[in-house]
TrEMBL record:
Protein name stated in the entry: histidine kinase
GO terms assigned for molecular function: protein histidine kinase activity
Keyword set, alphabetical order: Kinase, Membrane, Phosphoprotein, Transferase, Transmembrane, Transmembrane helix
Keyword Hydrolase: no
Organism: Herbidospora solisilvae
Lineage: superkingdom: Bacteria
PROSITE patterns: HIS_KIN
């Protein structure tokens, strides 16, 4: 099976490298040219004409020049609207790379700046040289965008397209030069020094760009421009340009005739070369997609052959693996969970009986080796589970024994302290004894918490039922910051004596948690009321509270406490609460408090309540 699969991957990789990338690049450039290039070129041509008319209006200020300019502005606005509409389509926007997107932003900024430029022209706030620079912003931005689109493409067609872009940019400098000349000559005045320098700079830049573009064009695409160079219109334009540079007199009418004829010849040459390039691109596109189709067909044939061989070779192997998979699933979903559950209940487990060796389901050597390896794995897994259960049991037993010893000593210490308190009359000594009594009570609670975590029962019991309020007072007495806790009046309801000690421990842990995670100057409120299913106690703090995700996590652990992990020491009190709640059948839930803190709600079931409250003093 390896050989046909490797051949398939190699074939598809080769096909993807030689076809997919080239096809996607071709489609992307085509979308960008249709959505940005064509409408952009149309807008640039209209803008160049508007530049010429704006220069004449800026020089003369006549009504006739303004009316002609307004008509051209309408043409430019239609081209500008068309560019915005086509550029905003999802196909064009998706085809833009980050670099192209930056250049596109420059283009749109230049388009938006046109309104400010027109306002400056109408208010006579811009000169002829500044006019050329500002009208050149959009053509310059379009040239940069076109260059970015074809920059990383080595296809010869794109190289030719870049050359045509240089020639188109040269035409823009021709338009700047023409507009500047028309604006000066229409008033029959000489060029200023600034205007003369700008005119020469435009002329030189145009010649440079023209030569660079012509240098990389192939003969077929170069011919229209060579014809333009020898045309009467271009020669006339160059003669007049030379006269202007040498400060010889030139009439505005002669300059406009030469400008209009040269720009038309230049535009016709660009259009002719672009059409020839477009015709040349069609076979390239067809060839690219043909290669893609051939590669796809060959890939399909390879897939069919691979499937055929794989089915022939893999049918028997599939049956053997299915049998082995069933055995693995049986172990993972039935046998191993059953063993773990028995271990949790403390039952003895025979590893050899629970992990019999798997018989190889067939004759394939690899499958047989896998079956033997799986047998070893399952034996190791069950053996490890047994060892872990024994370790947990021994650790729990050791912790439980140590905690019970501490519990006994602390209980004796409490009795001694109680006797000392009864015999002491000195107020200072009595206060110290009370503080020591309180510390010992808290130590006893921690020892009992360790017993609960290790799976035992604390052992403290009460003979008679105890009122809930009295039981809560006993829980508060086991909390370090007990002065902050306030128990509000509540109905006279009692809890059966057998579970009072566990309830005191549960409430003490919750109240301790509330005082720990709330500001020291705030109150921790304890309220209780009778409800339909028993008696509900609310413990509310004024702390920072918990987020919804953390509340959900804690409530889940309270409802179904996980097995105690010695490495997990965060919020041990809540772990103890979860264990006690499970043992007592009590529902404990944390919620967000309206005051910003956290409210713990404990629902004592009706079955745990005594028929009548019988008060028995709760020893702190």
């Amino acid at each position: 099976m390896i050989i046909p699969l490797v051949s398939l991957v190699g074939l598809w990789g080769f096909a993807a490298v030689i076809t997919t990338g080239e096809s996607l690049d071709l489609l992307k450039v085509e979308r960008l040219y249709d959505g940005l290039g064509r409408p952009g070129d149309t807008l640039v041509l209209a803008l160049q004409r508007e530049h010429l008319l704006s220069a004449e209006y800026a020089a003369t200020g006549t009504r006739q020049a303004f009316d002609t300019l307004v008509e051209q502005r309408l043409v430019t606005d239609r081209a500008r609207k068309d560019l915005r509409r086509q550029a905003a389509t999802p196909d064009v926007q998706d085809a833009l790379t980050p670099a192209m997107a930056g250049r596109f932003s420059d283009v749109m900024a230049a388009v938006d700046e046109l309104d400010d430029l027109r306002n400056d022209i109408d208010t006579k706030a811009v000169g002829l040289t500044a006019l050329g620079e500002r009208f050149g912003l959009l053509p310059t931005a379009m040239q940069a965008l076109d260059h970015t689109i074809t920059l990383n493409n080595d296809v010869p067609l794109y190289q030719q397209s870049r050359s045509l872009g240089l020639l188109s940019f040269a035409k823009d400098f021709l338009a700047r030069e023409s507009a500047l000349g028309a604006g000066v000559l229409i008033n029959e005045r000489p060029f200023t020094v600034e205007e003369s320098r700008a005119f020469i700079r435009y002329s030189g830049t145009r010649d440079f760009l023209f030569l660079q573009g012509m240098k990389e064009l192939d003969p077929e695409l170069r011919k229209p421009f060579e014809d333009m160079l020898v045309s009467d219109a271009y020669r006339s334009y160059i003669r007049l340009e030379t006269r202007i540079v040498s400060a010889a007199p030139v009439s505005h009418a002669a300059w406009r005739r030469a400008v209009d004829a040269t720009e038309k010849a230049f535009r016709d040459a660009l259009l002719s070369s672009e059409q020839r390039l477009s015709v040349r691109a069609e076979p390239v596109a067809v060839s690219t997609f043909v290669r893609t189709g051939v590669a796809g067909l060959l890939g399909l044939v390879a897939v069919v052959l691979t499937l055929f061989v794989s089915v022939r070779l893999g049918r028997a192997l599939t049956r053997e693996l299915a049998t082995l998979r069933g055995a693995a699933r049986q172990l993972a979903e039935v046998r191993l969970p059953r063993v773990v559950e028995r271990l949790r209940r403390g039952e003895k487990v025979d590893v050899a009986a629970e992990a019999p060796a798997l018989e190889p389901p067939g004759t394939t050597g690899e499958v047989a080796d896998l079956a033997h390896a799986f047998s070893a794995v399952q034996h190791t897994a069950i053996d490890a589970a047994v060892d872990q259960a024994r370790l947990r049991e021994s650790v729990g037993l050791a912790l439980r024994n140590l905690a019970r010893r501490s519990q006994g000593l602390l209980q004796r210490q409490l009795k001694l302290l109680d006797g000392m308190q009864r015999r002491t009359e000195d107020p200072g000594t009595l206060e110290e004894l009370f503080r020591l009594d309180h510390l010992t009570t808290r130590m006893r609670r921690h020892a009992e918490g360790l017993i609960v975590l290790s799976g035992g029962t604390p052992g403290r019991t009460y003979r008679q039922a105890v009122a809930v309020a009295e039981m809560l007072q006993g829980a508060v007495a086991e909390v370090e910051d007990y002065p902050r806790v306030r128990i509000y009046p509540m109905p006279e309801v009692a809890v059966q004596g057998a579970s009072v000690a566990d309830y005191i421990h549960l409430f003490a842990e919750l109240i301790e948690n509330a005082t720990t995670y709330s500001p020291p100057q705030t109150e921790v409120s304890v309220r209780g009321e009778t409800v339909a299913k028993g008696f509900a106690v609310e413990i509310e703090d004024r702390g920072l509270g918990l987020g919804p995700a953390e509340l959900e996590k804690i409530n889940s652990r309270l409802a179904s406490p996980p097995e105690f992990d010695l490495a997990d020491t965060d919020r041990l009190g809540l772990v103890v609460v979860g264990r006690l709640a499970t043992r007592l059948g009590v529902r404990v839930e944390l919620r967000q408090s309206p005051f910003g803190g956290t409210t713990a709600i404990v629902l004592i079931p009706s079955s745990a309540l005594a028929p009548e409250p019988v008060l028995e003093g709760v020893r702190a």
